[in-house]
Amino acid sequence: MANLLVTGGAGFIGGNFVHYWADKCPEDTIVVLDCLTYAGNRSTIAGVEQAELVVGNILDTDLVEKLLVERDIGTIVHFAAESHVDRSITGPDAFIETNILGTNSLLKAARRAWLDRDGGRDHRFHHVSTDEVYGSLGPLDPAFSETTPYQPNSPYSASKASSDHLVRAYHHTFGLQVTTSNCSNNYGPYQYPEKLIPLFLLNALHGRNLPIYGDGMNVRDWLHVEDHCRGIEACLRNGKVGETYNIGGGAELPNMTVIDTICAEVDRAFAEIDGLGVRFPDAPAARGLASDTLKTYVTDRAGHDRRYAIDERKARAELGYIPQHRFEDGMRQTLRWYLDREDWWRPLLVR
Questions:
Q1: Distance CA 176, CA 172 (A)
Q2: What region holds the NAD(P)-binding domain (predicted)?
Q3: What is the pLDDT of residues 289-312, one digit of tens each?
Q4: Which residues, at least 6 apart from 48, have a Cβ–Cβ distance to it below 8 Å?
Q5: pTM higher than 0.90
Q6: What is the mean pLDDT of the chain?
Q7: Active-site residue, 265 included
Q8: Does the annotation count 305 as an active-site position?
């Protein structure tokens, strides 16, 4: 796998994958295709020497085909997606366009470049999806497995479910060599500050309310983004063509527990790191107060799934996947990264 195309590689998970793959395989060439929407950031992959950023849209089928052929690319890792559920509720059209039509465009380009030219070539199309396609679980329901029926409940998850089906169809109909992974909630460096963990971290630093949907007891499985990258690598190296693998972090927690952990870590940081009170004078912790005083309850999100949980036994057994990050340690590392990389997130707050 000397040449890879990483779609959405200037975003959160894609950008982390670019860093991860560059460290693991420094001899490989990585072409990043990203249209640099609000969630894409050149600085996320700055300094990765073997990564070339091509600013373009996955809807441009001819561009994708040209890249695959001219750069002799045999692997696509497809991250590019609209992914924020709240945005899908207020503006679903962008999700239909990018997640469904964009994935179809990539598949068409891959088929042309890899199957229709000169008798075909070895290749792999890896599609990155979400556990949200499975719907919502009750408190005692078994965790999502790869055979759980799809029951998406938001425009976002419905668009990702559709893209999953397209990937499967291109394999069974045309013979495209595909794998799919459905991941749980990611956290870690370079995450755009509209998602829960970076939003609440930065709000706590700036003394802003921490808006908690409903009763705060919606449950998610939390996956450190580096473990997610490790799982994708395992899919590429060991995954069976045509198969789907669930990638989880083994940390099924209510949102309130996550929020309390964020508050405790912010308070700990202010106690341990000199000068934070000067840098962030509006934080309650700068005045010796607890960050959890910022917690505020707001009206629940429409169609808010109650619980997600991942059964990752297939990935463990077939891929050798094992997450390495304990949630508490990963959260502490994530907070310290944001404190160290104010240069990365500060410009995003004025977009």
A1: 8
A2: 5-334
A3: 999 999 999 998 888 989 999 999
A4: 18, 19, 22, 30
A5: yes
A6: 95
A7: no
A8: no
